[in-house]
Design a protein that fits this description.
The chain has 198 residues and is α+β, with helices and mostly antiparallel strands. It has one domain. It has three helices and 13 strands. The strands form three sheets. Strands 2, 3, 4, 6, 7 and 13 form a six-stranded antiparallel sheet that branches. The chain has a five-stranded mixed sheet with strand order 5-1-10-11-12. Strands 8-9 form a two-stranded antiparallel sheet. The longest helix has 20 residues, at 2-21. It is globular and about 45 Å long. This is DUF2931 domain-containing protein. Keywords: Signal. Residues 1-20 form the signal peptide. It holds the Pfam family DUF2931.
Length: 198
């Protein structure tokens, strides 16, 4: 009998806490990493921290798109819950054969801004939902841009910063570099590797 009473009390407590938390507690942000076409990177580390609550890593690996235009901004990543205060990222640029990293705090009020509903249109009609996707764009020269959106085409730029070039062993990416150059060397020879204007 005690066990049944305990289980009922626990169940009621869980139900009430679920009701009390309301729909805002269901907000889940997606954090992804993108890169400009032809300027592929390998993300070695993507770490997120919600101060005093949680610190975690998100595996990313190879990133070959998507900066802006019809396919972006968007990128590989995952759900960030709870919403982080800080993000740390380290990557290798195949075009430059360089390593970059940056630890940064997210802009003040960003979570609230992402929770605001924004309209978007699809073939099924016009809808409204939060801009719950945060894309970290990584460009040559260590340029970083942050966007939020809920669909490609209604992004808002919310941050721009410079990463630091750091030491690393490019020979660890020998095979990846060879594959990258087989696909992109003609483009790189023609257009170079712009370090500004992203």
């Amino acid at each position: 009998m005690r066990r049944i009473t305990f289980m009922l009390a626990l169940l009621i407590g869980l139900m009430l806490s679920g009701c009390a938390s309301g729909p805002d507690s269901l907000f889940k942000a997606y954090v992804g990493v993108g890169a400009p076409k032809h300027y592929e990177v390998w993300v070695e580390h993507l770490e997120l921290e919600a101060s005093g609550i949680r610190h975690w890593r998100m595996p990313v690996g190879s990133v070959a798109c998507c900066w802006k235009g019809p396919s972006g901004p968007r990128g590989k990543g995952g759900t960030a819950q709870p919403f982080p205060d800080y993000i740390g990222i380290r990557w290798f640029s195949f075009a430059e054969q360089k390593f970059y990293e940056r630890v940064f705090s997210l802009p003040e009020g960003l979570e609230e801004k992402m929770r605001e509903h924004a309209t978007y249109t699809t073939s099924l009609g016009t809808f409204s939902r939060p801009r719950d996707m945060l894309t970290i764009g990584l460009a040559p020269g260590g340029q970083m841009v942050l966007w939020i959106n809920n669909q490609i085409g209604n992004e808002i730029e919310v941050g721009r910063m410079q990463a630091n070039e750091v030491e690393g062993d490019a020979s660890n990416y020998e095979v990846g570099t060879r594959n990258y150059l087989e696909e992109h060397s003609d483009y790189i020879e023609k257009h170079g590797v712009p370090k500004e204007g992203w």
